[in-house]
TrEMBL record:
Transmembrane segments: 184-207
Organismal lineage: Eukaryota, Metazoa, Ecdysozoa, Arthropoda, Hexapoda
Signal sequence range: 1-24
Topology versus the membrane: Single-pass type I membrane protein
UniProt name for this protein: Putative mannose-6-phosphate receptor domain-containing protein
Native source species: Nyssomyia neivai
Length: 258
């Protein structure tokens, strides 16, 4: 039972950090402005918008998630669609095999500069910008458009600045009944579970087992060893998920050394 509880709390600690990552990670589909208003592109999720450039380039933007296929009118371009797909693809009209994936969804970051709200990403030395412009109408997906804003300096250069004009690009007031996010709820549940575990464990150890002092803490040996276990895990990852002979200590097997 003791080993089971230790494994459970190791998993719970991992889950807690993962939940914190969910809460803190930037959402490429939703952004809270400095004014506390919100821009939410969720209604356009999965839609692919096309921007036709003056040269032989066509740009395809997949909103909110990566796409593993181009619109039906395009020939196959594996450089964009393979390895997880694309969010922004530069499609070469004359040589589809020379198409380039410029960004994936996870690469986009929200910025607010000079009164403009943008999604930005880096492709090598190129800074990509998608400027969001509000279309004041309560329309449908068809009301959104995507077009090239700034022609490239050279004929064959990549275009780096685009505009997304849409009704969903309009800042919205946050409703008061949205509630907590999934990550926040998960963190609260784990913290409450830990509190219940701690209280019940202390009561059992104190009244039934006669423990006193710090020994009333349930699984005290595990909590004392936790910093060392964390360091072992960090060292294991730094070593490329391999156990080096120097990491093995007398009396501990390979699993314990990890």
């Amino acid at each position: 039972i003791k080993t089971t509880m230790e494994n459970f709390w190791l998993f719970a600690i991992f889950l807690l950090f993962h939940a914190n990552k969910i809460v803190c990670d930037e959402n490429p589909c939703r952004h809270t402005l400095s004014t506390t208003d919100v821009i939410d592109l969720t209604k356009l999720k999965g839609q692919e918008l096309i921007a036709y450039a003056p040269s032989n380039q066509t740009y395809v933007f997949s909103i909110c998630n990566d796409s593993s296929s181009l619109p039906s009118s395009f020939l196959e371009a594996k450089s964009c669609t393979q390895d997880g797909g694309f969010s922004l693809c530069m499609y070469n009209n004359t040589s589809p095999e020379n198409s380039v994936r410029l960004a994936k969804t996870a690469a986009w970051k929200w910025t607010e500069e000079a009164g403009q709200i943008c999604l930005t990403a880096d492709y090598k030395a190129l800074k990509l910008h998608i400027v969001l412009s509000c279309l004041s109408s309560s329309g449908t997906k068809g009301d959104s458009s995507f077009f090239v804003a700034t022609p490239p300096a050279g004929k064959d250069d990549f275009i780096s600045t685009f505009h997304l004009i849409s009704y969903v690009a309009c800042p919205q007031k946050v409703s008061q009944d949205e509630g907590l996010s999934t990550g926040a709820v998960l963190m609260i549940i784990l913290l409450l579970a830990f509190l219940v575990y701690l209280v019940i464990g202390i009561v059992v150890n104190f009244f039934m087992l006669g423990a006193r002092g710090v020994e009333v803490v349930p699984n005290i040996t595990f909590w004392r060893n936790l910093p060392g276990l964390v360091m072992d895990g960090v060292r294991f990852i730094q070593n490329g998920c391999k156990v080096r002979p120097s990491d093995l200590v007398q009396g501990r097997d390979t699993y314990d050394s990890i």
